[in-house]
Structure formats: C-alpha cells, structure tokens
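Notebook, p. 212. Picked up where the previous page left off. The plan for this session was modest: take the two constructs that came back from the sequencing core last week, fold each one, and keep the raw output in the notebook itself so nobody has to go hunting through shared drives later. Recording the first one now, exactly as returned: residue sequence, then the structure token string.
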Amino acid sequence: MKAVALTHYLPIDHPDAFLDVTLPTPTPSGRDLLVAVKAIAVNPVDTKVRAPKAKVEETPRVLGWDAAGVVQAVGPDVSNFKVGDKVFYAGDITRPGTNSEFQLVDERIVGNMAVSHSFEQAAALPLTAITAWEALFDRLKVSVPSQPTILNKTILIIGGAGGVGSIAIQLAAKVAGLTVIATASRPESEKWVRDLGAHHVVNHFGDVQSQLAECGFQTVDFVLILNDTDQHFPMAAAVIAPQGMICTIVENAKPLDVSLLKSKSAGFVWEFMFTRSMFQTPDMQAQGDLLNEVARLIDSNVLVTTLGKVLLPINATNLRQAHAALEAGHVIGKIVLKDF
C-alpha cells in the first residue's frame, strides 16, 4: 500500500521530512477495522510528533490522526460495522497513523460518516470534534439545557479560529446554549468565528480582560484554552467566575500557578483525546458514540464542517506543505488531503 512516512525527525522544509513509501497492507484482528483511507486532515499534534529530534526510526513511521474512508475488512470480534461502511475517526496515537492507503483502527473509536458529507468534509472533523466534545461535556461538565436557545452561561474560547475552536464554538453555542466569546486576531478569522456562532470576539494579543469588560463580562463561567497555556493561564484565572472551570488542551512549558484559583474554588482540567485509546479505558466506545452524534448533528444542519482547504493528492510534498502552514500559525479551520 502507498503511505507517507518518516525515518528521521527533520525541519519541515527538509525534502526528507516526509517520504512516499510502499508498506505491507495490514490484516484486521479482534475489534479492528481495516479502512481504505480516502481523505486525511492535519493537526498540531502531527507537527509536535514530527518535530526535529535525534531519534531515527528503523522502519518508516506513519503519522496522522484524522481520516475518513470505507471499511475494507473487519476483525472477527467487530460488531458495529460491516464492509462498505463509510466511516470517520481520529485513531490511536500509539498505533500507525492515517497517512496510508489502508489503516487498522479499533471500531470503538470510529463513527459513521454524516450522509451529507464528502470524505474531505468528514476528515476535517474527528480529532477536533472529539477534543471539543470531551473538553466541553466530559471535562468542563457543561450541561445541555432543554432549551439551547436560552443563553445562561458564558464561555471564553481562546484560539477560536483553529480546528478545535471551530467545532467548540458550534457545540458551545448551538448544542450547549452558552454565550460564546471567542478570540481571533485577524479580520478573516474574526469573520470565521462569528459565522460559526460566536456571540462576541476579542483579540488574544490584546488585553483580554479589558475587552471582556467592554463586552459586558467581568467574569466567565468556563474558559477553554486552545493556544499557549503558559501565556493565557494567568488571564484565564483572573476572568474565571467563582466556582468556574478552566480546561486546556495545550501542554505547558512552565509550572502553572493553580493557587490563583483557590479563592474562587475554581477548577482546572486537561483534555487529551487520545487518553481513552491509549489506556484502553472501559468507556472507549464513548468516542464512537460521540462521533455518531456529531454526524447526526451535521445531517440535521446544526453543525457544519470546519474544512478550510483541500490539497490533492495525499503525498509527501502536500503533507510537507500542510505541516508548514500549521507551523506558521495562520491556518483557519482544517487542512485536508484527499486521494492517494
């Protein structure tokens, strides 16, 4: 099978940062699906795993954690899918990734594609949808009201125009009924987050606390940090409401002063969407279930894809281009590669 892989961890402008290779097609066992990959998306985690370091892989390593495709074969213990089903998923960081013609993935972390979606539209969603869903509903414990149009709580989403922010805005505003304040720093990214449902927009390069006050908010009930935890945590601690909750998906480089939250009895929690698959938690199926719910919300016109740009085909040259764009830090929505 065709695949894009690496053997050395190199700067993305190096011609060998990614290589077009041919690898054996794997065979499914247990609860694994063998998926014929039709489209993939690129995420910041891809660039972090690929970041330059001295390690050398003895055999080519395939990265990638977002895909949409067709079930080609199933393991003997599979019960949720059959050959021919169209699926989307983010995969497991401990296993070979999505940047290959065929991939094995545990059925419990796979969802059925939205009927109304193309493969490229579907591939833009899994990792970010799982991350946003788990951050909001599992980590921050946001409740879904019986009448989502009643805006009774507030959330500040830092990094609203990125992949996770783009779906988190929609889930928070359209499903959870929250008043959403998103950060964006450019006219095009401000328009993007407003079109997705953000009620207010502030610039994360400015004084966020003052901008919130200008919008009428002295505090917010929830903060979701999707960019530079070290920079934004002190501000988040300052604006979080008493008994509020802060969640981040971005690792910190320095110790965080969580004592800032003590007087408010506020909480701080991490979200890492690979936790369930990495530790084979008893609730792994929750990821497949939430992806099915995301697909239902897509087909019901509640949510829209966060696809920003499509590159054809899936090869080393285009994958280098996608990684370079992410590392430059100005991507709106998701970059998707389609077809081998």
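Okay, moving on. Second construct, recorded in the same format:
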Amino acid sequence: MQINCERLKANLIELSKIGYNEHDRGIYRPGFSDADMQARRWLQRQAQAAGYDTFMDGAGNVFFGRGELNKPAILMGSHIDSVPAGGIFDGSLGVMAALEVLQTMDDHNVNTDTPVWGVATAEEEGRFGGMFGAQAMAGKLNPDWVLSAHDADGVYLKDAMAAQGLNAMDALDAAWRPEQLKAYLELHIEQGPVLFQENLQIGVVDGISGVFKWIVHLKGKADHAGTAPMDMRSDAFMGLADFAHEIERIIAENGTDKTRITVGKVELKPGYPHTVPGEAIFTIVGRDMDEAVMQEVANACRKTLSAIARKHRLMFEYEQSSWLPPKPCSKALTDQIEAQVKQMGYSYLRMPSGAGHDTQFLSEITEAGLIFIPSVNGVSHAPDEWSHWHDVENGANVLLHAAMALLPENGK
C-alpha cells in the first residue's frame, strides 16, 4: 500500500499559497493571524470534500477524520501556522500527510473500528510562548497563563484570539483524556542537516530537546549620536552586542554539544540613525536535551546579562515566556516505527530532535512517535526550506504503515 504523492504534493502547494509573500517568497501564517485562520478554514473544506468529519476546538485545533471519538483513537498531524517568512513544509507536511493517509486507507478500502483522525494544532511556533494547541490537548494550560500570554510585540493571546472570534478561555476545555487516544504520530522535516548530509532517507526520533524563551529588556539612555562621548553613553545596543559575543563561552562552560542559544528578534528604541539606542528588546531561545543543562545555561545567561548591564550602565529585565522540558518519545512506538522503516528498506538514523514539536506534549497523554525526512542543506524556517518530493513520499509512506500497524486488525 502506497500513498498518492501527486495528491499530497497538490495539497501542500495549495496550502502554501495562503500567507505567501511574493516579495521574499516566504510564508506568513503567525498563530491566530488572518492567514492562519484562513488556512484552518481551507483545511476543513478539504477534509469535508474528501468525506471526513471535521471540527475546531476551543484552542483553535482543527480535527478531521472518521470514527466516533468514544474509543481510543489514532491521531496524526502537526501544525500549519508558520514563523514569519517560513517555508512550505514545516508543520504543513505532517498535517497534509495525515489527510493523505486517511485518503489512502479509503482508496484501499481499509475498514477499522478504530477511530483514525488528523489534527492541525494551533499556534505551535510559539508566537505567544509554548505550543498552545498541543498544550491545550494535553491539559497543560491554566487561566493565568492564557490571560497573560503575549507576543514579543505586546499583543496578548486573548486579544489575538478574540479578533478571530475565539475565546481564549475555551482552550481550557480542549484537553483530551489519555483513554481517548491510542497513539499520536507526527511526520516532520528534520529542520537540520544530519539526514541530508549523511544521505539518509528517514529519521526515527527518540526524544525532543527542551526549549526556554526569554524576552529581554536592556534599558539605558537615548542620546545624541554626535554629541554624546563614547565613554559616557548608556548604549543598550552595546549591551546586546556584548551578550552575543558571550554565547559561545556560555555554551562551552555550561552547555553540551546539544546546546543552542539564539537571539532571534531585536528591537532598538528609539530606532533613529542619529540617536544612541536607549533600549534594546530581544528574544533569547535556549535548547538542550537535558533539563539540568538548560537550567545551567539559563542561569549563565542571566549572570552574563547582569554583568554586561553593570558595565554599560544599563538596567536589565527579562520575562521567561516559556519553559518546555525535554521529552522522550514512546520507546515502544519508536521501536515499532524503526521496525517498519527497516521492513520498508529505507536508510535511517535513530536520532534526537533539536527543535520542539507537538509530539512532546502529546507524549504526556499517549504513546507518541515522531518521524523525520531530510531538509535540503538543513534549511528550515526560511523561504528556501525544501525537501525533495521523493523524501516526502517516503516519509508519508512510513506514516501510513506506522498507523496501519496500530490497527487491531493488524495485531496491535
């Protein structure tokens, strides 16, 4: 049994048109933006046209499939929101592959009493911190966080959802009970160079890196760029620049070869060419496979920023918008996926994921497995993100047979 790659390709290309920017050729579907919600409505129409039931829960997660959800279900999926100037495969591959698996099962008249559903989770990319849709499904939200969460531009989650006709507090009712799920499967691009450089077809993921995200403020004094002497300035940008140079040292002293620290978004105020920056606002995202290491790295970042602030006569403040601990995938399900890959004759690597995925939250309530395909040159979160169609086909076929192996008719 094989998936229909042309059908999967057509759906991925059609979805990529939503939020597409002709200027930089990137995809813009931030969580709970107009484009994001347009994509969710499009997905529901596609699923309905294929004959599937569909619904959106209070967190904005879109579900599609067949079978009453009154017995343990097999759930497949990922997300369809994107980072600014993202690519066409990140997240979307897993959602469209889930739809393709359902259609392939129908093409081959696979009848099962087990509910088989797909999901497009909401706000996975962390615009508001965390992985909102998957956290809602896993019952990991609380009212205080839901009402206080905001993005780096100060937009509150509750307001962004209200603008789309959603009540953020309804997300608290979106939790699934463990007995409702048999397993969760996610297909994703690697978003790194390992599989591509080693010419391997499949990554069998056995664990997911933890992630913390900070929003940092360094506050100094805006001043005239021509009249303020260099040794009398409280230049917030110089504080940011000094921290950037300290990242390699922090990792060498406190991290591991799996540690990542990234300054991803920067805003300087007042932001005028002839004015010394009085404030630097930026994000820090740290990752590691060991939560104790994550804590060491976070502490080192805090101490370093405090010292830099004193050096440049700045005030240092930060807000931790999310802390996601590392999560192992289900060993039993990972072993089963590995056996399927071997049986199908694909070259593969059993590997960790340096990027966060919905799987890490779904793993708290069910058996959860994650499958990777290569990213060309390791590129992701960028317009030139690409995976070859033969790799897309391979990954979708692994997803198909991993789901089939979970059906009771096949002895599971």
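Notes on construct two before I forget. Residues 5-209+326-410 form a domain with the Aminopeptidase fold (CATH 3.40.630.10).
Flagging for discussion at group meeting.
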